[in-house]
Amino acid sequence: MSDARFAESFVHSRFQRGSGPQKIRAELRARGIDDDLVSTCLEAYDEEWCELIARVRRKRFGDALPADFRERSRQMRFLQQRGFTADQIAAVFRDPD
Fold first, then answer.
1. pTM of the model
2. Mean of the pLDDT values across residues 73-91?
């Protein structure tokens, strides 16, 4: 299997599992895939990361945004561990008003 095909398949698989772009990038680097190829594969999902992070947060913590700082921090750490960027995490916690 070519590196390009493997990378595309890997990104799709991890995206479906709810992993963020940073975690996917690190996993592909560990497998020896070229950074340019990784970037290209991740860019295919640029429009969908915000939807994914919201879905992952809702699945784990429910629909309501956290009311206190401690719970918000806990949720943010969870999303960081899943491999989402700081900008993506901040966007999911913005007040929708």
1. 0.89
2. 96
